[in-house]
Amino acid sequence: MQCLSVDQSFPVASWSPCGSQKTKKHIGLKLGLALGLGGAAVMMVSFLLYRYRRIFIPARASITSSTLDLERSNVFFGVPIFTHSELEEATNNFDSKNELGDGGFGTVYYGKLRDGREIAVKRLYEHNYKRVEQFMNEIEILTRLRHKNLVSLYGCTSRHSRELLLVYEYISNGTVADHLHGDRAKSAPLIWPIRMKIAIETASALVYLHASDIIHRDVKTNNILLDNNFCVKVADFGLSRLFPNDVTHVSTVPQGTPGYIDPDYHQCYQLTDKSDVYSFGVVLIELISSMPAVDITRHQHEINLARLAINRIQNCALDELVDLCLGFKSDDTVKTMTTLVAQLAFQCLQQDKELRPSMDDVLQELKSIKSTEYELENH
């Protein structure tokens, strides 16, 4: 830009026949430069408009098209389409008294259809590109899965106001989090055999998901539902990812719930099935400790349960980690089994994902620990 700078040698105010020639040349130079810059700007704007039309407009059109398909058809990805009025009636117009819970993506309501079926309706907070993507993702994944420990999708709906709704089977006994450190824990804490059952059934569901090339990506006790027989139903697949079986990882921005997110994934942006293993390790610690994954009332260095657990396990201080109401000090069988589960959780919580076991190995180890109960009680 030196040609545009003003210095003392530049004949700004001189006027003479000779100076006139120099001035004309300089005016021509400035005019050419201005035209060149203007042309470049026009080309840049044209390029940006071209890119916008090629990328964003088709994406929006795709969303609109998908939404219209939902509104006009009776079946989507093989599941029924409910009318919005049906679900308004079932939930008493989404009465706040029917709220079952809420999360990062929406509020879940209890409802009852005219045919008598009890349902849980997830009402997404917003209707934007990201929400539609999560909506479609959850439907696509759940319609291709069949496992006794995965929640069933009954259908979905959409209306002209762009509200997206997902309809699931209703699981009546709350979440594992409720029973470990929520309101339900106060009245009737889970006994050890039920906690082992929850661990095994959740692991079984995750093994099935991984065998189906799916990473859950949000494994936590709030997403593990229980029926009246304390059978597990893993839920919430909004963040789940289809994982091609010919790659070792998927590069993606870390998403999930604080306290459960794989630190290796958080640091390297590489999602693998071992990310679910880490999260499940936190769930195991919750099952033996009855503590939440994150608790800001704990000491600064122990807010994160995984960090607290690793410290206690390394220092052989399990009596400071395991919930004493389980009988850790009075029942040798419980003490042995909780110790083995703590050791397994420690393996799952390794910072280096390569040192973590697979979910299949975790499931087999849990079954082995379960068999230990029978052996110890018969000796």
From TrEMBL:
This is non-specific serine/threonine protein kinase. It is a single-pass type I membrane protein. Belongs to the protein kinase superfamily. ATP binds at residue 122. Its main location: membrane. InterPro entries: Kinase-like_dom_sf, Prot_kinase_dom, Protein_kinase_ATP_BS, Ser-Thr/Tyr_kinase_cat_dom, Ser/Thr_kinase_AS. It is found in: Cell membrane. Residues 94-379 form the Protein kinase domain. One of its GO terms (molecular function) is protein serine/threonine kinase activity. The chain crosses the membrane at residues 31-50. It catalyses: L-seryl-[protein] + ATP = O-phospho-L-seryl-[protein] + ADP + H(+); L-threonyl-[protein] + ATP = O-phospho-L-threonyl-[protein] + ADP + H(+). Its EC number is 2.7.11.1. GO terms for cellular component: plasma membrane.
